[in-house]
Amino acid sequence: MVLAEGVEVDLGPLGRARVTSLLGQGGQGYVFEVRRDSGEPLALKWYKSESATAQQYDEMQQLVEIGSPHQRFLWPLSMARVGTEPSFGYVMHLRHPRFLELSYLLLNADRDGKPLDVSFASIIELCRQLSYSFLRLHARGLCYRDISFGNVFFDPGNGDVLICDNDNVGIDNGTGRVLGTPYFMAPEVVRDTTYRTLPNTDTDRHSLAVLLFYALFLGHPLEGKRTDAGMRDAHWLMTHFGTEPLFCMHPTREENRPAQIVQQYWNIYPQFLRDLFVQAFVGGLDDPGARITEGQWIKALDRLRDGMLACPTCGTTNFWSTGDDSVTCWQDGTEVRPPYLLEVGRRTVAVGPQTTVRSDHLTSGVDHPHVLAEVRRHPKAPERWGLHNASDFSWPVAYPGGQSFLLEPGRTLELVAGARIQIRNATVQVRRPAPSGQG
């Protein structure tokens, strides 16, 4: 039933709340805004009678007791009841309006139809946050079961992520009615007409790779010329996503090449990232154990961000990679070469106007890394570059000629080949790129 405005809702340990408005509805039920006696607004998902089963209640109560694996999940906080109504629901935090459904990224427009301007940095952050969030979920022994566009929201300005519809979450390899959303389901789930192959961490990893491919390349990894033929019916879905899937950028088979924009973005990103997607959608299609883990994605996305370089003539973001002498700007053909490289442990960071040293350089794999240092270009001598201390502590610095000093917060040092900068437990070494042909 649709709950009327003002109806009192029992939230168990969270006390009571009243319905203030209807936010939306879907196949399973309705979503209302409610307000607790304390004044705090929450979102209430209220199940339709056909979905309000005893099994659903038990599963939701279990998720409430387990607790959220990460703040990015709009997780069930408490079960909800209304008087003698046989149905039930649960409450969660409200989703801030700055978050858009991921499908808006493909549309390149916001809710009002205004063009989006999503930077490469925001897309990388989006992909990293998605990967880290599912790493935390899987570490709890849980799987999402239905990763898709409708469940992932992002902030176009910075790439922040929210993951919704968490009543889809279940125990890894446990029983569950939710098998996934077509196009995002793993092939072994699609082709099993007995429905015995249940979602698990491995099937989640396929769905995650599909989402990441969409975000980075703006298309589906299994769609192209081959899938454009025929009616999009059950047989088409079974063939192209279950029994005979073919990666659109397969290294040796070209019969399923995708739209031109997907191929353009494929060529923009460096080889190490393309190799991961080849593994995910060639070997990983038939061998779930060969799929890319969340940790592998995080490492690759950090490396991708380390290689971001702006073209000096048009400002377009390009991606340098270790071993490259330079990269050719995909927009205007300019050769882009980093003036310096910063070596931090096993990481190599290309110096450019967008470059930062972050907390993940000091401790790999950390969540939501914050900026410790910013590269700055001399305003009057563009060939000179500096590193600005954006942290709240001083850094010991040693120049190759023997000069050493402490760089205080808010101050900037000039980058010189051979300089060594100590930032907490990490040493940042400055060097010039190797001459062409020397790697």
Automatic annotation (TrEMBL):
InterPro entries named in the record: Kinase-like_dom_sf (IPR011009), Prot_kinase_dom (IPR000719)
Origin superkingdom: Bacteria
Annotated Pfam families: Pkinase (PF00069)
Keywords: Kinase, Serine/threonine-protein kinase, Transferase
Residues covered by the Protein kinase domain: 17-304
GO MF assignments: ATP binding; protein serine/threonine kinase activity
Name of protein: Serine/threonine protein kinase
